[in-house]
Write a structure and sequence with these properties.
Layout (H helix, E strand, L loop, with lengths): L14 E3 L10 H9 L15 H10 L7 E4 L1 H13 L5 E6 L4 H8 L3 E6 L9 H10 L4 E5 L11 H10 L4 E5 L20 E6 L12 E5 L1 H8 L9 H10 L3 H22 L8 E3 L5 E5 L3 H10 L2 E5 L4 E5 L3 H16 L7
Parallel strand pairs: 1-11, 3-4, 3-5, 5-6, 6-7
Antiparallel strand pairs: 2-8, 7-8, 9-10, 10-12, 11-12
Helix pairs in contact: 1-8, 3-4, 9-11
């Protein structure tokens, strides 16, 4: 592999592969157009609480009506909106283990009980019928899972989620599709067909607008109307609303960027799996990140940080590496190669 990029020494150079962000910053040029409109923004006034233009554009993107959408301060706020409505003391939330940590946080905040169905990547895909039976046995009031799963990258197929919906008709199922654009399968079009289906989406990942904190809750018109009554007013600031609204008009920019990331994901996984050994193993992913497990992962994370590369270390023998640009990925691969070939993972 030839490259002019070298492994960074010390912490002066930093490559951020820890937050599942879009490192390409696809709307950087569009930001200039948005900033030109700031002089027309009345910062002494509260935002329009309905966010009509933003909602309409995202509804168009998912081929639904604006009545199917609630705009949130990141999808995190929308997760809390749903959990706080369906979970309280004595209620049970079922999710996967591992999965997005905010499910635990909001469930605990609302004094609910969380039950987790374990993912074992070494045993292959999740048995959908075992998951359905687990949810029935635990008497789930609400089921939430990210799809693709964060952090493992595994994913339920659309048909598998339909099986969950059909077999748990009396349970609300929230599918967190934060990483949909890197996977390509969605159930968002089914929200009017299934009263028990909700979907969350975000502009933080493929759309590359993490700093704006804009997300969405999508569901059937009836349930969205009821949940809208519980939403905090003025939850999106005027700057985020204006910039996000402008960028949503150019979905082709996002699609081009997401396509690059998917190609880089396949390149990076091909290289990383060459390092698989008894102390660390990397797994194929449907997101914009790659998951690794093994007793060497924590040491690898520390050594990569010394090389100026930040990844997500879960401190439980697992790591998650965000897919970067080709240049960043090459630096990462060179660093890991040096660490593993030098047997630094085994040094005390």
């Amino acid at each position: 592999m030839s490259s002019s990029y070298e492994v960074p020494k010390g912490k002066n150079i930093r490559i951020y592969l820890n937050g599942n962000e879009n490192g390409y910053n696809p709307f950087k040029e569009n930001l200039k157009n948005s900033l030109n409109s700031l002089e027309n923004l009345s910062i002494n006034r509260y935002p329009n609480n309905d966010y009509e233009a933003l909602k309409a554009l995202y509804a168009e993107y998912v081929n639904l009506s604006a009545e199917n959408v609630i705009v949130g301060n990141g999808s995190d706020e929308m997760l809390n909106l749903v959990i706080s409505n369906y979970i309280n003391h004595g209620k049970v939330l079922v999710t996967l283990n591992p999965d997005f940590g905010m499910y635990d946080f909001y469930c605990s905040m609302n004094e609910g009980t969380i039950k987790k169905f374990n993912i074992n990547l070494n045993e292959g895909p999740i048995d959908i019928w075992e998951f359905i039976e687990f949810s029935k046995e635990e008497k789930a009031d609400l089921i939430i899972f990210s799809n693709p799963n964060n952090p493992t990258g595994m994913a339920f197929s659309r048909d598998e989620i339909i099986e969950i919906l059909d077999n748990l008709k009396n349970t609300i199922i929230l599918v967190d599709e934060a990483y949909y654009e890197f996977f390509g399968q969605s159930v968002v079009d089914l929200v009017e067909s299934y009263d028990n289906l909700l979907v969350t989406r975000t502009l933080s990942k493929a759309w590359g607008m993490a700093a704006l904190r804009v997300g969405f809750l999508i569901g059937g018109r009836k349930v969205i109307k009821e949940l809208s009554k519980l939403k905090v007013p003025y939850n999106i600031n005027s700057y985020s609303n204006m910039i996000a609204t402008n960028n949503l008009k150019y979905k082709e920019i996002m699609i081009e960027s997401a396509d690059k990331i998917v190609k880089e994901r396949e390149f990076l996984f091909k290289k990383l799996k060459e390092f698989n050994n008894e102390d660390i193993k990397f797994y194929k992913s449907n997101g914009n990140y790659i998951f690794g497990m093994g007793k060497g992962t924590h040491k690898l994370g520390k050594l990569l940080e010394e090389d100026g590369i930040l990844i997500r270390d879960f401190n439980n023998n697992s790591i998650r590496i965000t897919v970067g640009s080709r240049e960043e990925n090459i630096v990462l691969i060179k660093s890991i190669e040096r660490i593993i070939k030098g047997r630094l993972l085994w040094e005390e």
